[in-house]
Amino acid sequence: MRTSGTNLDFITFSIYLALVGIGWAMIYTVGYGQGGYSGDFFSFLKTSAGKQLIWVAVAMGVFVVSFAIDSKFWQTFSSIIYAACLLSLVAVLIFGKTIKGATSWFDFGAGITLQPSEFMKFGTCVALAGYLSSYANNLRSLKTQLYSIGIFALPMLLILLQPDAGSAMVFLAFFVVLYREGFPGWVFALGFSVATIFVLGLVHPTSYIILALAAICIFILAWNQEKRLYWLAGFGLLVAVAFFAIGKGYLFYTVLGSAAVILGLYVWHFYKRKVSLANVVVVAFIVGSILSYTAHFTFNNFLKPHQQERIQVWLQPSKADPQGAAYNLNHSKMAIGAGGLLGKGYLEGNFTQGHFVPEQITDFIFCAIGEEQGFLGVIIIIGLYLALLFRIVYIAERQKSDFNRLFAYGVASVLFIHFFINIAMTMGLMPIIGIPLPFLSKGGSSLIGFTIMIAVLLKLDASRG
Fold it and tell me: Which of 87, 153, 164, 190 is most enclosed, with most CB atoms within 10 A?
């Protein structure tokens, strides 16, 4: 649905306004627990809710200006916008303010700070769309693939230097854009496999990871035989023997035996001239084993104690200090669970009003919704985000311009990774990496950055012809 006067996509705009409004209301309720809001309006503006109200007003102005700019401007000056955003990331490393160990903000005084990484997401959206939409570029070309990855890998590197691993991780979302445009699918499968092995290797003994990899490899090689049933029966017997040996304390010899079995199967495949699959399996086993050892070694020798604690909170919460690293997560889950079906009511949440969850107006705003609005409120919020994402994808697919489509997918990808990781980390399903929930979390940089994305997207759509 588009209004006749401005060609603005009213559905998308309405969802955006709803999320912004709900976000401010939840920031208000978190601050309400400090004894309410007393004094005049100017005193209120000094509170978290008051400051966010100012940012909301600024965001509305930014939306109007961004929407008013000619749609061709964004593609024409995409490289300049990207370069300016990159320079801001370099500048913040030199002139920025360090907060909680990360030099990520420009401090303009009077409590006004800006985080350039939030605007870099928009800059990367237009730059990647501008590059891939040019006539000469084809994602089947290795040069184009590497250049495209470099467009979002460079800001990732600069953000990691701050250091802000959470914000840097968001830029991996642009792989979704590449996949939509024909980037090879096997690369994503490989990346997911590597990431899984590395994550598991962080906190689990290397020997067990190697045994698991060996079991997968042996199963694949056994499945590839002519008399498959007999080979699979042998695989089952081998697994039983391995469990018995591990139970008796022969873990090291079990690992050696598994490696020997893989070597024997490789020789058999070589004899049967089925070496192609065997080569892939053996290389995968060797690389995976090395990767798991590297991850475990890195965790124990290079990560700082607080970084180790964050990983343990995610992967091994029972081993984390409930009054230390696990405090936020435990109270976040308790707050969400306390809401029940319908919630305790607006301004009535015990955890929310009592400030038992640190960083609740930023990273953990979702648990305030869970406590005060309950399961129903959570479903509504998730529904709004999903509706926004589906609407953006719908807008992307109806574009005649490649630039418009690519930009829309970039916006959808960044929104999705923020939405998914933030909500998942408040429930312990993802590590706590400190990224905001779009439009809901307190923060002017995040709100304005996402507002520009939505405004430009709607402008491109309104001018699609």
Answer: 164
Instruction: Give the whole-angstrom CA distance, residue 245 versus residue 271.
Output: 30
Average pLDDT, integer, range 238-263: 90
Q: What is the value of pTM for the model shown?
A: 0.85
- Could you give the strand order of the β-sheet that contains 102-107, starting from the edge strand earlier in sequence? 97-99, 102-107, 113-114
Q: Given pLDDT bands bounded at 50, 70 and 90, which one contains residue 88?
A: very high
Residue (of 453, 426, 389) closest to 176 by Cα position: 389
Segment 377-392, tens digit of pLDDT: 999 999 999 999 999 9
Q: Which residues contact 152 (CB under 8 A, 6 or more apart)?
A: 124, 128, 171, 172, 174
Residues shown for the chain: 465
User: What angle separates helix 228-247 from helix 206-223, to the nearest 10 degrees?
Assistant: 160
Q: What integer best gives the mean pLDDT of the chain?
A: 88
Closest CA to 133 of 75, 72, 69, 70: 75
- Indicate the pLDDT class of residue 4, thresholds 50, 70 and 90: very low
pLDDT score recorded for residue 3: 43
Cβ neighbours for 98, distance < 8 A, ≥ 6 positions apart:
none
DSSP-derived 3-state class of residue 47: coil
**Alpha helices, H only, 185-274:** 185-203, 206-223, 228-247, 251-271
Please give the Cα distance from 292 to 198 (Å, whole number).
Answer: 6
**Helices first, then strands: H and E counts in the chain:** 20, 3
Alpha-carbon span 366 to 143, nearest angstrom: 42
* Rounded CA separation 100/172 (Å): 24
Give Rg (Cα) of the chain: 26
Three-class SS of residue 103?
Answer: strand
Q: Which residues contact 117 (CB under 8 A, 6 or more apart)?
A: 89, 104, 155, 159, 162, 164, 167
